[in-house]
Amino acid sequence: MLVLTRKLGEGIAVGDDIRVVVVEIRGNQVRLGIKAPPEMSVYREEVWVKIVSENRLAADFRPDQLQKVLKRGVVPRKAPEKEGRPVL
């Protein structure tokens, strides 16, 4: 792990396209600004951990589990239609 000391307004570059800047220091909290390309997602770590966890659960879903859900009467709703066409 790289550990750096930065002052207010100073930043670091990650590769060619990402820049992290210290925006504010208040007590024991530091606010960071992150500039990254729009196609790159940036998440707080606790949100990222939740996304990864949910993705793993979804990847473990088996077809026989879907059959059990459908037998319970839980059926996906049909999209509403407007003038004979689905509303998106």
Question: What would your notes on this structure say?
Answer:
The chain is of the alpha+beta class and 88 residues long. The protein has two domains: 9-39, no CATH class; 43-73, no CATH class. Helices cover 27% and strands 27% of the residues. It is built from two helices and five strands. The protein has helices at 45-59, 63-71; strands spanning 11-14, 18-26, 29-35, 81-82, 85-86. The strands form two sheets. Strands 1-2-3 form a three-stranded antiparallel β-sheet, with no helix packed on it. A two-stranded antiparallel ribbon has the order 4-5. A hairpin with a 3-residue loop joins strand 1 (11-14) and strand 2. The protein is elongated, with a radius of gyration of 22 Å.
The percentage of residues in β strands lies in 25-35%
Measured distance between first and last alpha carbons: 46 Å
Q: What's the total helix number? A: 2
Q: List low-pLDDT spans.
A: none
Which structural traits does this protein have?
2 domains; alpha+beta; 88 residues
Gist of the model:
The protein has 88 residues and is α+β, with helices and mostly antiparallel strands. It has helices spanning 45-59, 63-71, and strands at residues 11-14, 18-26, 29-35, 81-82, 85-86. A 3-stranded antiparallel beta sheet has the order 1-2-3, with no helix packed on it.
SSE blueprint:
Layout: E1 11-14, E2 18-26, E3 29-35, H1 45-59, H2 63-71, E4 81-82, E5 85-86
Antiparallel strand pairs: 1-2, 2-3, 4-5
